[in-house]
Amino acid sequence: MTNESAAHTHDHGGAPGCGPGSAHAAAVARDEAARADGSRAAGSASAGGGHGHSHGAGANRSRLTLAIAIVATVLVVEVIGAFLTGSLSLVADAGHMLSDLIGLIIALIATIVAARPANDRHSYGYQRAEVFGALANSLILIVVAAFVTFEAVSRLISSEPGEVRGGLMLAVACIGLVANFTSLMILRGGAKSSINMRGAYLEVLGDLLGSIAVILAAVVILTTGFEKADAIASLLIAAMIVPRAVSLLRDVMSVLSQSTPSAMDVQAIRTHILEEPGVVDVHDVHVWAITSGQYVFSAHVVVAREVFERGDTGPLLDSLGSCLTEHFDVEHSTFQLEPAEHARHEDQQHL
Length: 351
Prior knowledge:
Elements: H1 23-37, H2 39-85, H3 88-113, H4 129-157, H5 166-191, H6 195-224, H7 228-256, H8 266-274, E1 279-291, E2 294-303, H9 305-310, H10 313-328, E3 332-338, H11 340-345
Parallel strand pairs: 2-3
Antiparallel strand pairs: 1-2
């Protein structure tokens, strides 16, 4: 038997478990009765809530679209500026900005794709597209960081590091600073309510820090003539890029290899399931992520014969699903309920 859990919000009170006969099960029953008595009102409220959610998603798409337009424009300005000034730090900041532009586009696509329903060909929907976009993003970051580092070191050890036009470099960096600050303020409104928007906000914040590094290097060049400050600023920007690239790549590989998400404690989940009244054992526990923050869970749950005889498998499935949703933020869970004699016949069992 399987169950795809729906989100419920209940107070577990002092009950040790969440199964039939517990405070949690009683809360589930009360909720079912309330939904049956007020289905029309619930339908009306749901329609209103859907409108609010749609409005919020639409506002976030508008914010992201505007931020993308600003970042793309400044990216072109920085590339031209890097060519005209000979500034490596502008090249580094442009590469950083290119990566962030891709991240913003991915965030925008995610707000659109997330609304597309699953189908027979894509049973989990299209959310995995965000992961492949993040993979491309991380690889671009690594390439940019490697190129900038190589060029910066070459300029630092060279007796002729190359002429850098500090005045134009400063002007371009100031344009980037203003544009990044504007984008930051645009995205700020959605960053508090959406993890997707929060990621976009942090990406633009990284660009802002990069622009500040370029400005400082330009000021040093203009005031002291020390042109190697440009290469030093480039290394600082590369140093900001590498940890993020590695972290992003690690997260992508974790999702694609279906590893247990770092936020999930499998032993804690097992313990929680075993506290359910009627549950004898649990095995073949698997937790993985479709994309960041979207977790999937499955397990074989050995249940006392009395649960089957009383016909309590339905309430048990509801309670198990609700517990996974509430305590571990897993909205898609599948449980196979089986008697002890069946579990003993399974050839291979996993923890």
